[in-house]
Amino acid sequence: MAKVPSPSSRLKRSAILNLVLLVVLLILANLAASFKFTRFDLTSERRYSLSDATISLLENLDDYVYVKVYLEGDLPANYTKLRNSTKELLDEFRAYSSFVEYEFINPSESENEKERRAIYQQLLDAGLTYTNPVEQKASGVSQTLIWPGALITFKTRTLPLQLLRSQTYANEEELITRSVNDLEYEMTNTIRKLGTVIKPRICFIEGHGELDSLDTKDVTISLEEYYAVERKRLDSNLTSLVLRAEKGDTVKFIPRYKAIIIARPDSAFSEKDKFIIDQYIMRGGKVLWLINKVDASMDSLNVYSNKFVYPIDLNLDDQLFRYGARVNPDLVADLRASVIPVVAGMVGNQPRFIPKRWPFFPLSLPASKHPVVNNLNATRFEFVSTVDTVGAPDIKKTILLSSSKRSRILSTPARISLNILRETPDPRQYSSSGLPFAVLLEGSFTSIFRNRMSPQIRNSDKIGFLESSVKPGAMIVVGDGDVIKNSYSRTTGRMSPLGYDRYTGELFGNKDFILNCVNYLCDDSGLISVRSREVKLRLLDETQVKSSRTSIQIRNVLVPILLILVSGLILSFLRKRKFGRNHS
């Protein structure tokens, strides 16, 4: 009679079999992983997943990228989150490329004050900035000097990267969250700039009273990190924006520039110049239109305190209409606006100024999740006009920026006066909502000169007229030309950053908006789409933490221990019950 295995030997044999099976599965999994690299992200917001554009950039690196992060040391809780998120992102980078190396450095580590100051000065010279947040501790209030930035080196070039983004209307926790959202985009974009050998060309158009190089100096400096920036007059020259190439009997017209910028013209465009721009668009060229349709300005108001404003005829209405947009000859007044100083009386013989919100300088916070404006700081407009989407049914139209829920339209001609600041605004007069300021147009455009050309011109090989786009294109139309203008003193030569408000010291998102517009129009790799990614930080409720500190600590310490004990007791009971039944 065969011997029946005892329960203990059966259990032992089963355990050995399970162990062998587990080892075999692990070996097979590792063999599969050696042929196919895969990472699994189980977070709801795909926190540990990089975009396709980032992965492509990392996999094509041909030299080491070295990142020095200066966010290290005894940091406040929020900055520790930013530091940890930065490390997690860099670890993700290293998972896709062995050419990524990094280190975290504490610039305040030295106990020698002279050495610390020397390091601080080196970081300032390299382009990094510091912050000194106030932290509430049990011992009292403390202030720490923190450098939330990094220096990224690729081959022979080094660029600074500010990890902490500047945002308006954000407390510290929101600021950290938005900074974490932007980490992948900012770091990837910096690496891309370091690796760009031949920069795409873009061009500011001149000859129609557009803003000059000093008025656009700040954004030009930033654009030059990505592009070769030129300025050009069209002067009715058919090859101003396209290159004419002949090969045998074939003639090709190739756009000279990835995109052109038309920044606040004040005089009418000739039909020839319109034709040049139109045919550039038909051949795949991109345009950023920054248009003032009303002749309003603060210079005249500061002199006369009130002024009649009139529409400006730029001879572009029919052209923009054909493409799908119309900049209206009106002004938007908005209760969500930036402030200007107003004389409220005299102190001795000196005027006393107080800040008042000027409704004709609206602040636009993006409601759209489009990559151009997602997570963008408030953009400051000056005497902005509405932009309607019209006609062109085949063109995709996206509103990028718009007014608040408390706004209204002022039709022109009209009189505007600083005297309205002396009165409390009536909210009932500001009943309009979401008035469009900036519109993105995408698709295959139709030429404004279609059916207007004589057969001689239409069939000429020297002109190469096109009635429609050879491939889908894009353009952005903004109802304010001053959105790109920086403050510049021609007497002192001093320039203020684009978007900087000298009355409040706030830095608005104008420059980021312009850069995003140009990047979106020019970016073939899709890196700007990374901006749409959102990472949710599970932040603690500080009020609840303070009021329930003891109970939270008890729950977090005792509950896990109790769960382990209860689980152990249940398993012990089940095992005794099982083996007791087998013995019986």
Topology:
Layout: H1 7-35, H2 52-59, E1 65-69, H3 77-96, E2 100-104, H4 113-126, E3 134-137, E4 140-143, E5 149-154, E6 157-162, H5 172-195, E7 201-206, H6 217-223, E8 228-233, E9 242-247, E10 250-255, E11 259-263, H7 271-282, E12 286-290, H8 298-304, E13 306-309, H9 317-323, E14 325-327, E15 330-334, E16 337-347, E17 350-364, E18 379-380, E19 387-389, E20 396-402, E21 407-411, E22 414-417, E23 436-443, H10 455-458, E24 473-478, H11 510-522, H12 542-547, H13 549-583
Parallel strand pairs: 1-2, 7-8, 7-11, 11-12, 12-24
Antiparallel strand pairs: 1-5, 3-4, 5-6, 9-10, 13-22, 14-19, 15-21, 16-17, 17-18, 20-23, 23-24
Task: Please name the defining characteristics of this protein.
584 residues, alpha+beta, 7-stranded mixed sheet, 4-stranded mixed sheet, 13 helices, 32% helix, 23% strand
Q: Into which percent range does the helicity of residues fall?
A: 25-40%
Distance between the first and last residues' Cα? 21 Å
The order of strands across the largest sheet is 8-7-11-12-24-23-20
Which value, in Å, is the CA radius of gyration? 31 Å
Main β-sheet: number of strands, strand sense, barrel status?
7 strands, mixed
Q: Approximately how much beta-strand content do the residues carry?
A: 15-25%
Tally of strands: 24
Mean pLDDT: 84
**Spans with pLDDT under 50 lasting ≥5 residues?**
535-539
Number of helices: 13
What would you call the structural class?
alpha+beta
